[in-house]
Specification:
Radius of gyration: 18 Å
CATH superfamily of the largest domain: Alpha/Beta hydrolase fold, catalytic domain
Order of helices and strands: EEEHEEEHEHEHHEEHHEHHEHH
CATH topology of the largest domain: Rossmann fold
Number of helices: 11
Strand order of the largest sheet: 1-2-4-3-7-8-11-12
CATH architecture of the largest domain: 3-Layer(aba) Sandwich
Number of strands: 12
């Protein structure tokens, strides 16, 4: 394993780790962590890495600027705030492009973009708006549906709309950096501006609005327990995506891992097998 420092496309300094397969290869997976996590404490990778090593594929697990709850980022014009509390999801495009360009400079030519949870959403979002020709495949593990309409119409709508109203009021008053301790869709400390951007009426990160714009082969995986729940972000999302794929003529490989929760507790071997045997990726 080699610890790496690289620059996002806009110059923000980020870090990651390159896990090299045993034999020389020009194939690599860029792996994106979920909200508030980071590249060095991701349990999913413990089982995914042996599978990638068998396939002679390098793994570049990176921090996006949204790593951990809060952090300080080095940027061309000085330090800036980062972390899940302060990130703007759209800026993931710069982080992902920077990681890809770093791999290309090291001789990689065929790159798969993968991620878990918000990282999976970022993988799909980035390639829908800023497609990189070196990205041959996308593997999205449990991408959430970040939809204002879904939350506003869901079982926790009163709490959601109350929190959104508070965030919008702060934003209108010029206090977008005010930190809110929110509970929906998940417990999180986040700025008012970040909450409106991520979950607001603009539906900026609604998976169903931009997924069909992705042209690369894509595998999307979920845990059985998350899609069978009444969660606004995951309940029935596998079937909704199948319907979208059929209507848009997309040949997506959508899989549900039996008995798995959002973190694939006790099911990471099954997750790794599904990824390893995805025909589009092995060809």
């Amino acid at each position: 394993m080699e610890l790496i420092t690289f620059s996002a496309a806009d110059g923000v300094e980020l870090h990651g780790a390159l896990h090299a397969a045993g034999s020389p290869t020009d194939q690599a997976v860029v792996f994106l962590h979920g909200a508030g996590s980071n590249f060095y404490s991701y349990s999913l990778l413990k089982n995914l890495w042996p599978m990638l090593e068998r396939m002679a594929v390098n793994l570049f697990s990176i921090n996006t600027r949204g790593h951990d709850l809060a952090c300080t980022l080095r940027a061309p014009h000085g330090a800036r705030r980062g972390g899940a509390a302060f990130e703007t999801v759209d800026e993931c495009r710069h982080d992902i492009r920077g990681a890809i360009e770093w791999l290309l400079a090291r001789g990689h030519r065929r790159i798969t973009l993968a991620g878990h949870s918000l990282g999976a959403l970022k993988a799909i979002y980035s390639q829908s708006l800023d497609r990189h020709e070196a990205v041959s495949h996308i593997i999205a593990v449990s991408p959430p549906l970040l939809s204002y309409a879904a939350f506003a119409g869901g079982p926790r709508r009163r709490d959601f709309l109350s929190m959104m109203s508070r965030a919008e009021q702060l934003l209108a008053a010029g206090e977008g950096d005010h930190l809110l301790n929110v509970t929906i869709p998940l417990p999180l400390l986040i700025t008012a501006a970040g909450y409106v951007d991520k979950y607001g009426p603009a539906e900026r990160y609604d998976l169903l609005r931009f997924a069909a714009n992705v042209t690369q082969p894509m595998q999307i995986l979920f845990g059985e327990r998350e899609v069978a729940s009444n969660s606004e972000a995951f309940g029935g999302l596998d079937q909704t995506l199948r319907e979208l794929a059929n209507s848009e003529g997309r040949n997506w490989d959508i899989r549900v891992i039996p008995n798995a929760d959002h973190f694939y507790s006790g099911c990471t071997d099954a997750l790794a097998r599904e990824i390893e045997h995805w025909p589009a990726w092995r060809s």
